[in-house]
Amino acid sequence: MRGLIAGLLRGEWRGGARLTEAEAVEKFGVSRTPVREALLELQGLGLVELRRNCGAVFLPFGPNELHEIYAVRSLLEVEAARLAAGKIGKESLDSLIAAFTRIRDSGGVDPDWEHDRTLHRVIAEASGNHRLSSEISRYGDLIQSVREIVGERDYGIHEMTADEHLSILKAIGENDSGAAAAAMKLHLEQASDSAAAAAELMRTTAKH
Amino acid sequence: MRGLIAGLLRGEWRGGARLTEAEAVEKFGVSRTPVREALLELQGLGLVELRRNCGAVFLPFGPNELHEIYAVRSLLEVEAARLAAGKIGKESLDSLIAAFTRIRDSGGVDPDWEHDRTLHRVIAEASGNHRLSSEISRYGDLIQSVREIVGERDYGIHEMTADEHLSILKAIGENDSGAAAAAMKLHLEQASDSAAAAAELMRTTAKH
DNA sequence: ATTACGTAAATTGTATACAATATAACACCT
DNA sequence: AGGTGTTATATTGTATACAATTTACGTAAT
């Protein structure tokens, strides 16, 4: 079923397009049960809208929608960064700092956003609020899904992103809540613009 | 299926208890398909944890969990109040103010939290951020579910709640973002304590 | 010509049967 | 006696058949 969601995301996502359960069954070669569960899951993430007897409508993801998503994500993660200040163990912090320093200096690429997701997960868990951490994890899934849809990659912005990550970690290590929150806010504003640009790029290239 | 969720919520919610799909089928007299969808929905709200081949575990809801939930809710709704300042139409605002003034002065009771939910919905929609509004709506469902679980009622706190609502509306009407955010924050802190107290009461009375 | 009604088609909601997988118990080996 | 492998059972994941509901179309009446 998890693979079904990935398949739906990878297929071309025309905003407003409708897909009935029967069409999805034919397209993916599975039965209606996993199709229904996958669509309900996507509805839970706010990616599709399920209308009775009308099929699932794929919601559009343009720059505006991405800015909205990142605005909510920012509320959650900025608070998590504030709460996590001074609460991440030294060894864990050092290993994260080493990883991002290496990435920044080597100019390496992280196509699956592996380190990025690890960083945000560690900060969320260090907040001490399980519910907040769980919501951030859910939004992480959403962000990853949207990245699939808009085809966002990290090429070109990687050194800058690593720097932003290091600023957040530095503030957390120094137990500076305000600085941690501010650094996270700035980082997510950059990420928001980057994602919106990817969406705009997809929109324009899909025109012809 | 919606009724199934209500049934699961109304049944005694012992934190940590496990319920297999087969048991739910026997208990509610429906087939596994709607049971599965209901459990997946509850998982999406973070009310149960689904472990493969182990049944669904009912997560506990004590004072600590409720404070966590309300902390997240506060992040969302405080921002919504800030954004909604000056954006609610006069007629809509006046009708809300009239309703809560009447409630406050008459000492009436709103057992299903009808007006409360309307107020928070109107503010969320006025924020202009559809995604934020959608998340607040989702948290409204969660809050309502938790109220069912812990048996929270609004008796006794109603005049105070109405006053808090009026403060929020006043600030929004005066286009004062800061005051609107502060009033909403205060209101949700009160609500958080009230919900936590209800959870504590349930815990202690369930002891014997 | 337009509207109302009825029927048929399509789509979702539900039930049940079957397959896959994980847990647990039990026997056997060391 | 303790550990390991195997088998049996329990539970979830999937497929298919059926019921209910809704939409759309066609026909007839005004």
How would you characterize the overall build of this protein?
Two copies of one chain form a homodimer. Chain A has helices at 2-10, 21-28, 32-44, 63-84, 90-106, 114-126, 130-150, 158-173, 177-205, and strands at 18-19, 48-51, 55-58. By secondary structure, chain A is mainly alpha-helical. Chain A has two domains: 2-58, Orthogonal Bundle (Arc Repressor Mutant, subunit A), CATH 1.10.10.10; 63-205, Four Helix Bundle (Hemerythrin (Met), subunit A), CATH 1.20.120. A three-stranded antiparallel sheet of chain A has the order 1-3-2. In chain A, helix 4 (63-84) crosses helix 6. The longest helix of chain A has 29 residues, at 177-205. The relative contact order of chain A is 0.14. The mean pLDDT of chain A is 91. Chain A binds chain B through residues 33, 36-37, 40-41, 44, 46, 65, 68-69, 71-72, 75-76, 79, 129-132, 134-135, and chain B through 33, 36-37, 40-41, 44, 46, 65, 68-69, 71-72, 75-76, 79, 129-132, 134-135. The first copy, chain A, binds a DNA duplex (30 and 30 nucleotides) through residues 1, 20-22, 30-34, 36-37, 50, 52-55.
